Amino acid sequence: MRVAIVLGAAALLLYGPAGADYSQRDDVRTYMDGLVSEHGFDRAELTATFRDARHQPRIVEAISRPAERALKWYEYRRIFIQDSRIDQGVAFWTENEASLDSAEESFAVAPEYVVAIIGVETRFGRIMGSHRVLDALSTLAFDYPPRADFFRNELTEFLLLAREEGRSVGAMKGSYAGAMGYGQFIPSSYRNYAVDFDNDGLRDIWANTADAIGSVANYFAEHGWRPAQDVALRVDVADTEQADAAVLRGLDLNKTVGELRALGVEAPGLKAAEAAALLRMELEDGAEYWMALHNFHVITRYNRSQMYALAVHQLSQAIKARRQARLAAATEPALDAVAAAPRNPASPRAR
Q1: Global confidence as pTM
Q2: What is the per-residue pLDDT across 141-186, written as a single tens digit (0 to 9) for each?
Q3: Catalytic residues
Q4: Of the residues 272, 292, 312, which one is the last residue of a structural domain?
């Protein structure tokens, strides 16, 4: 903790604000020139917007702060695969069943994965971020040089979406990195993939669960989700040393099922030519191996992390299993009551 605090403080000194009023800074004025010439924004309105924007030191600290240590898979998994989050996922599914069914019909994305994304990102809307997106993106675009280009692009996307959607620039809230709503869409993702799923004329991913569900499903569909296909499979390996040499280090699937079988990875029921990758996930007392498939790679397009994608997969399966168990338990008493009811001798079913 001491190291993180010191490094965080150093980051604040290194990437501090060049001025209290963003609208008076030369770099911001140059940026506004581009918005006026390329996108037709009104300069006076932009000046007022950036005069209102506030530098947030805690945002720079949060994005600069290095992890004290990299989480192992079993530590990361523990954060997301919890009974309380699974129960909340079942409840969210029940409350939004019609929208989830409609999204599956429209986008061919299994509802458990839409539910799991929202569960991992915001605990089903409970934690959507309290920063003004304007402040977050202005701070990172102009006072965080390591990723200034990325965040200036997102700031532009944010201003464009506010204009397109008729939303107040200063009213929208999100994470310290400018991610918004149930599914934590950054502004470029909002503009490209958010949908008005209930046809009310708005793409509201903050308060409208139908739009949030449809938007996540659309994101997956646009990134190539394949319906009714596996995401990842727990596999056994014949030779751990040989398997470890083949473990995926990045995100792009780098093997085929056939190639992994040749290395002693058991993968029954899959076509040899199917793209795949081998993952090694650390446990407290060893490791487990997973075969990642195409839909796993799609999930990593949402968040570029193997552990994130596997957590989404496992949470989706846990929520689905618990929901099915509860539905089955709810029908058993009704079936028992029917079986125990006395038969009417006059009834055709009693003959």
Answers
A1: 0.89
A2: 999 999 999 999 999 999 999 999 999 999 999 999 999 999 999 9
A3: 121
A4: 292
